[in-house]
Design brief:
8-stranded mixed β-sheet; homotetramer; 3 domains; alpha/beta; Rossmann fold; globular; Dihydrodipicolinate Reductase, domain 2; 22% strand
Chain lengths: 352, 352, 352, 352
C-alpha cells in the first residue's frame, strides 16, 4: 500500500508542529505540500523538512521520494491530484470554506478545532458531509487520543466507579498574545473541555454558564481571564471548567471525574489517579512496555535516522563490552560473596 | 531518500515489539524481513504486520510496497541485499556470531543487550568493528533514550547540582520464567543499571559487590532474588542497585542521583523530581507540546491509518458542530452574565 | 497559673473526641464536667477518661486532681462555679440557648459549627456578646488551625502569588446517616468552605448558587448529593465548592487557590503544593522539627503516661546497647574499608 | 493523680525543644527543673517557659503551680525530691554517669540517643538497670513514635506483604557544624537507622559495612560525607542506609521496605505509599479524625491558652453569623435553582 500523501494548510505553531510530526515520526504518510499566506514561512518549513532529521545543512536528497511543495492557494492544495488527504491548521475563520472544498474534492481532512466560527456554518458543513454519504472530516479534539484521557474514558465507561456525577476541569496556559480576547477564551480554549464533557459523559450539553470573576491584573487587553464555566448535561450531570490563559506559570490541563463510588483524576503526571474503596493510587505497569514504550520508539527512530545518515547515535559496542566486563565480575562477586575488581582492557589501547 | 529496509532477527517478545514498532510507528523505515528458529511464529508475525493497522483480516495489499519476508537462517538475513540494517533480538548466546556477520557485510545493527555473553567475545566484537574503521553497532541500552533518564542526564551534566556523589537504582519485574537464574539477574537485568551508572557518571566501574540477601520464597528455581549490588566508580562515586525480578507487583524502575547541592529522582511518574535549595518539585511545561505531544502523534498516526483504510477514527464533524453550539451559548452567557440554554439541531434530524 | 477547668456539652462523636483531647493531650486544662441527654453515654465517657491513659481497668485515682462530673442539664454545667470555660458540641438547634447562657455567666466558650441554625438567631448572639463588651465566643471553624490551611493562608497573604482569583474546594465524606438531608449538606458541610472562602479572601460572600446535579444512587433518603456551590465574593473573586457526603471512598478535603502568578493546593497530603514560575513543588523542611515534631510529642506524651503508671513504653536500655555495638563496628568498617562483624553480648545472658 | 514533675538535663536545641513540649503541649506533666552548664541559657529558658503561652512579657504568675527551677549540677537535679522523672538531652559523653545516677535514685529517665558513647559503658548501664529488677530507662529512638514509621511497622508485621527482604533508608541533614566529624555521622546519625532496622526486622544486626564514596566538596572539615552503610541482619535480610549530613537542601528521612509481595515507603509526605498486586497508592482516611486530628488539637490548645489569658484566638461569633447568612441563602438557592444574594447586617452597624 502506498504512503498517504498529505498537504497541510497553515504552518503557524500548530501546522508546523503537524508538518514535523508527519515527516519525522508518522509511519505510512508523506508530507507533499504546504500552504500558508506567509510564503517565506512556508518555504522555510518545506526546505528544512526536506532534509534528513538531524542534518542542519545539506544540499541533496529530500526525505521521502520528493521535496515538499509550497502551494499558494489553499484551495489549490486541496484540489491537487498529488494530495491524498489534508490537515487544516489555518485560523478558524478560514475553516468553513476549506472544509467545503475538501468535501467537494472528496479529500479526507483532519481539521484543527474549532470546526468553524459559528453554529450555523458548522451545521452546513455537517449537512454537506452527510449528503456525500461518507465521513471525511475529523476534528482536532486531540484529548481523546491522550493516553491519560483515554484511560479515564475507559475507566468511566467500565462502570467500575458507578455513574459519573461531576467533572472538574482545569485548563491553563502560560500566556497568550494580546489578540486573544474574552470570546476566544471560550471558542479556542474552553472548546476542548466542551468536547471532553460531551465525550466522557456521552451526552449533550443543555445549558452553560460562564462566570467572569474579577480578572487577573497581568493581562493588558482587558480580557476576562480567568473564566469559570458550568456545563449542565442533558442527563443532569455537571461539568465545571476553569480556563485561565494568562496563568504565568506554564501549561496545565487536568480533569477530575467524580462518580458514585470513587473519583479519577488525570493531569497530575501520574496517569490516572483513582480514589475508591478507601484507597488512593494508580496502576503499576505489568512490564516494560508501558514504562519504556516511548523510549523504545525514540531509540529506534533515532537509530533509523542516524543509520540513514551513515552514523551511530547511541551506546556503542564499547559500551556493550564494558557492561559485559562488569557483569562478569558481578557474577563472580555473587558466587564468592566478596567485592570483585572489574578487569577491562583500556579503551585507548583497543580503539587507538 | 529511500526508506531504510530493516531485517529483524528473533521475534520473541522483544523482537515482535520492535517489528510492530518499525511497521506502525517509525518514519523512514520499512520492515522487509524477519528470522526466527520458530518458523510458524515468524510467519504469523510477518503476515499480521503486512496488513494495514486495525484491519484484522484482509486479502490484498501489504503495508509498504512489499510483504515482509521470512528468512530461515539469520546469517542469510544479514547477508540479504534487500536488507539495509539489522535489529538483533535473538538470545544473547547468538549475538557474537550475528554481530560478526553484520560487521562482515557492513550492515548497521541495533543489538539488544547483552552485546555478547562474556567479556572476551565482547572485546573481539569491539576490535573487529574498530578494524573496519567505522562504527556499525549500537547496543540496546534503551534507558538513554527514555525522556526521564535523558532529562536526568542533562540536569546532572549541567553541573547545577554540583558533582554527583551517589546513585540509588531500583529495577523490579513482576515475575520471570523459571529459566531465569541467579547469573541472568546480573547479566540481563543488572546490566541496564551498569550502563546507567557508566553513562550518568561518564566513568568506568572499578569494583562491584553483589549482595544476596535471604531470597524471596516466591521463586521456585532457587534463584538468589532480590540482589543488591554496589558499583564503585573509578572516580570514587558509588551506585547501588536493587534488582528484584520476582517482585509480584509489576514493573518498576527508578533512579535517584544524589549530588552535592541536591538530588534528582526519576521513575516516580512525574518526570524528574528534584530537591534543591529547600524546595522539592518539578517543571511545569511551557506549552501544550510537552504535555500533549504524544497525544498529537497518536491522533495523526491513527488518522493516517484510518484514512488509508478509507475510514474515520476520531471526533466527527458533528462533534465539531456540537462544540460550536455550546461555545456560542457560552459567549452569550459571558456577555449577559446568566445561564444560557444550548440550541442545537437534533442529530437524528440532520444525519437521518 | 491554675489549669483551665473545662465542661463539655454533648458527648457524641465530636464531643467525645474533644473530651479525650482535653484529658489526654492538651496542656494547661482539665476536663471537670460533661453533659449529654444520653446519660449512660456521658457516664461511660466520664468514667473511662478518669482512668490514666492506657489502663483499661482501675479502681482508684482519677486523672487530674478530681473525677469528671456528669451534669444532667447543660445550663447547670454552664452555670457551675467549678467550670471556667465551655465546649459546646451539642446539636446545632441547641446552640443559641447554650451560647446565651455562656454569655450570661461570662464563660468563654468554644462552640462547634454552626453558630446557630439561622441568620437571625446568629445575629442575636453576636449582638448579645457585643453588648457585654468582651469577646467570649469562638466558633469551631477548625480549618483555620490546620497547618496546611494556615500555610496556604500565609502564602496567599504574603502577596507572593499576586491577588487570589479563584478557590476550588472539595469536601467529601465517606457516608452520612440517613438523617442527613439536603439542607444539612449546606448548613453542616458547606459551612466549612463558607468560612474558608471568607477567611482566605478576607472578604464577605455576596451571592451564592448551589447546583444540584443528578444525585448519586447510593443514598437512600433522597438527599441532593453531591452539591456544587459557587460563592461570589464582594470583591468579584469566586470560590467553588463540591460537597459530596456519600462519596463511599473516605474523607477528603482539598482547597486549590488560583492567583495571578501561580496556584497553591492543600489536601494532597504533601502540605502546600505550589505552582509558580515554571515550577511545581513544595518545601523541604530545614530540620527535624517540621518532619518529626509530632513524633517527639507522641514520644514524650507516651513516656509521661507510661511513667505515671510505673512502666516503660518505648525503646529500652538494651536497644541503646545494641545500637552502640553496631555503631562501634560501623566506625571500624569506615576506618578499615571492609565489612565488620558486630560483637554483642547475648540478651539472654545479660537479662536472664 | 498528680502531674509528673519533670527535670531536663541539657537545654541545647533538643533539650529546649523538649522543655517547650512539656510545658506547652504535654498533658499530665509539669517541667519543674532544668540543668545546663550554660547557666544564662538555662535561666532564660526557665523564665520564658514560666510565662503563659503567647505572652511575651509578664511579671506575675508562672505556668503550672510553680516556677521552673535552674539546678547547676545535673546530679543534683536527678537527686532532687521534687523531680519525679528525668529527660537527658546532654552531650553523649555525659550520659553514662547521668543514667547511673537515675538508676541509683530510681528515677525514670528518657535519654536522648546515643545511650552512651561505647559498647562497654552501654552494657554496664543495661546490667545496672537489670540488677534493679525494674526498667527505668527509655532511649530516644523517636522514629518508633512517628505515625508513618509506626504504620510501616504495623503493615510489615501484619504479614500482608510477606517476609521483608530489604530496607532502603535515606537520612539527610541540611548541614551540620564543623565539629561533626566522620565518626559522629555513624554514632549520631546512622544510629537512628540502626534502631529502625533492628525494630522493623525484629532482629539483630550481624555485620556492617560503611562505604565512604568520594565526599562532597561542600564540607570544610574533611568529614567523609555522605556515607553508605550495608547492615546485614542475623536472618540474612539487608538494610542499606545513605547518611548525608551536608545535603544543603534540607532535612529528609525516608524508608522503603521491600517484601516478597510488595513494597512500602514512608517519608514521601503521603504516609505509607504501598505497591502491591499491580497497584501503587495509599489509604484515604475514614473520617475527619485522621485528616484533621492535629488541627483540632491545635485549635483546642490555642483556645485554652488564649482563654487562660482572657482572650479569643480564633473565629468569632461574627464569623459564625456570616456563615449562617450564607448558608441560609445557599439553601434557598438549592431549593429555587437560582443564584441568591446573601443578606447580612453590616459589621460596622452591629459591632460599632
Amino acid at each position: 500500500m502506498q504512503d498517504l500523501r498529505i498537504g497541510i494548510i497553515g504552518v503557524g505553531v500548530m501546522g508546523a508542529d503537524h508538518a514535523e510530526r508527519v515527516v519525522r515520526r508518522i509511519s505510512g504518510a508523506r508530507l507533499v505540500a504546504v500552504s500558508d499566506p506567509d510564503l517565506p514561512r512556508a518555504n522555510a518549513l518545506a526546505e528544512s523538512l526536506s532534509r534528513p532529521a538531524g542534518i542542519a545543512e545539506q544540499t541533496g536528497a529530500a526525505n521521502g521520494s520528493g521535496a515538499i511543495r509550497v502551494i499558494g492557494d489553499p484551495l489549490d492544495l486541496i484540489a491537487d491530484a498529488q494530495v491524498d488527504a489534508v490537515i487544516i491548521a489555518s485560523p478558524g475563520f478560514a475553516h468553513a470554506e476549506q472544509l467545503m472544498a475538501c468535501l467537494e474534492h472528496a479529500k479526507p481532512v483532519l481539521c484543527e478545532k474549532p470546526l468553524t466560527m459559528d453554529t450555523e456554518s458548522s451545521l452546513r458543513v455537517v449537512e454537506a458531509e452527510h449528503k456525500l454519504g461518507k465521513q471525511l472530516i475529523q476534528v482536532g479534539f486531540m484529548r481523546r487520543f491522550d493516553p491519560e484521557y483515554a484511560a479515564l474514558k475507559e475507566l468511566l465507561d467500565s462502570g467500575e466507579l458507578g455513574r459519573t456525577l461531576l467533572l472538574h476541569n482545569v485548563h491553563r496556559n502560560k500566556t497568550v498574545p494580546d489578540t486573544f480576547r474574552s470570546e476566544m477564551i471560550v471558542r479556542d480554549s474552553l472548546v476542548h473541555e466542551v468536547d471532553v464533557a460531551r465525550w466522557l459523559f456521552d451526552d449533550e450539553i443543555a445549558k452553560i454558564t460562564v462566570h467572569a470573576p474579577k480578572p487577573t491584573g497581568l493581562v493588558a487587553n482587558g480580557a476576562l481571564d480567568p473564566q469559570f464555566a458550568i456545563l449542565e448535561m442533558a442527563s443532569g450531570a455537571i461539568a465545571d471548567v476553569e480556563v485561565f490563559v494568562n496563568f504565568q506559570v506554564g501549561y496545565e490541563v487536568r480533569c477530575e471525574a467524580v462518580a458514585e463510588k470513587g473519583s479519577a483524576t488525570i493531569g497530575l503526571g501520574v496517569d490516572v489517579l483513582t480514589k475508591r474503596a478507601g484507597q488512593w493510587g494508580g496502576v503499576v505497569p505489568e512490564d516494560y512496555r508501558a514504562r519504556f514504550g516511548t523510549a523504545y520508539d525514540i531509540e529506534v527512530q533515532r537509530w533509523v535516522d542516524a543509520t540513514r545518515r551513515g552514523e551511530i547515535d547511541g551506546p556503542s559496542a564499547w559500551d556493550g563490552y564494558a557492561a559485559a566486563a562488569v557483569c562478569t565480575a558481578g557474577i563472580q562477586s555473587l558466587q564468592e560473596g566478596r567485592p570483585v575488581e572489574v578487569e577491562m582492557a583500556r579503551k585507548s589501547e583497543v580503539l587507538g
